[in-house]
Design goal:
This protein is α+β, with helices and mostly antiparallel strands. It is about 30% helix and about 20% strand. It has a five-stranded antiparallel β-sheet, with helices on one face. α3 (about 40-60) packs antiparallel against α4 (about 105-110).
Length: about 170
């Protein structure tokens, strides 16, 4: 393969409203095991599993839809994408102490390296990207900045350079 070639591995499965969240975490963990992530980067695995839980839960609760989960690994980013049948694009909102919900996207925003939403013909897809520690973070490459999509996509800024951020340099998960 030439230097510009890219090899990707991916898996896809649909999870019904009736029993999808727990099954989606278990299914995701099995695939992360096959990539040897559970032993090499357990803190990233925890962040991915939490993201899967939040996105599948959102598809079930807010879209009243099954969740179609796709995992894609291209050696730079593990992409977690969840599609549902609602055309309503989500947006993070401030948590309300009176309501038990409304924190899912804030959690995803805090733990994913990037996340975005895309409208589709019959619904939407919410995706989160995870760069394993020790690999170059493409967000730091100025020559190829990633622009948000015109359909509501969003790129999460690198918070490590913000004043008061406890981590200097590449982003690390706790």
């Amino acid at each position: 393969m030439g230097e510009t070639s890219l090899k990707a591995t991916g898996w896809a499965r649909s999870f019904p409203v009736t029993a999808g969240v727990r099954a989606s975490r278990r299914w995701t963990r099995e695939h992360l095991d096959s990539l040897e992530w559970t032993s090499e980067v357990p803190e990233t695995v925890d962040a991915i599993l939490l993201t899967v839980s939040e996105l599948v839960t959102n598809a079930h609760i807010h879209a009243h839809s099954s969740a179609r989960l796709v995992l894609t690994w291209d050696s730079r980013c593990l992409q977690v994408s969840v599609s549902d049948s609602s055309d309503h694009l989500p947006a993070p909102r401030a948590p309300d102490e009176e309501r038990p919900s409304g924190r899912g996207l804030a959690i995803v925003e805090a733990i994913a390296d990037e996340w975005e939403t895309h409208a589709r013909a019959h619904g939407k897809t919410v995706s989160a990207c995870f760069h394993p520690p020790g690999r170059p973070d493409p967000r730091t490459v100025e020559a190829h900045p990633r622009a948000p999509s015109s359909t509501g996509g969003r790129r999460v800024p690198d918070r490590s350079s913000l004043p008061g951020h406890p981590v200097a340099g590449p982003r690390r998960r706790r």
